[in-house]
Amino acid sequence: GALRSVSIPTQEARASRALVRQMRRLVNARTRAKNAITSVMAEHGYDCPWTDAFGKKGRRWLMSQALRAEYRMIVDQELEQIDVLTRQVKQLEQQLAAAVESLPLYTLARTTPGIGPQLGAAIALEFGDMSRFKTAKAAASYSGLIPATFQSGESRRGGRITREGNSVLRWALVQAAMQLVRLDPGAKQRYARLRNRIKRYKARVAMARQLAVVLWHMARTGEAYRRGEALVKKPPAPPAP
Fold this sequence. Notes:
two-stranded antiparallel ribbon; 241 residues; 9 helices
């Protein structure tokens, strides 16, 4: 009993997590391609009049702009790359949907504003069995969102987040928290209070950490996300075992 036990995911869980991580790589590559096109257009002083420069109207606008042959080739190749990556992302989404549809945490996470199929799958698969975390702090710590503590004698101070634990889960929680701030009044209110006291990056991390806590309570109680109050009020205590 001197050594702490470690939870080892099953082969099926590891394979599903591999799909999540491939999804993240593809999405990041697609973002880089879009940024490359945006950079070319900005260099030529073109500002897209449409909200989505890569939707149907935005693409027609991109194709109608006068560019040197070299820049046109860059834009066309990046657009082709975006199409390929989008098709691959859709294939992964279909595969992931079958892997997570029976997971209770996935169903609960999807009730949270801003958590779509991709982020929901990442959170559910990377957290795994939430019951293995005895406390909400343990769940947040698993993602490395808990501040490090430095102690010397009677002096004790906190530092940056540990960044230990599951980096994919940490990324998913931060992305989900920022979507939540945009869509949920309670989360927006809490984020605004944090921004008055701390820097933007720290506020985002704090929101992601609180979201991990809320998800832990949701998993323990089986209760869906309460819009407007889940990140404002103290989460309900889990039922007694």
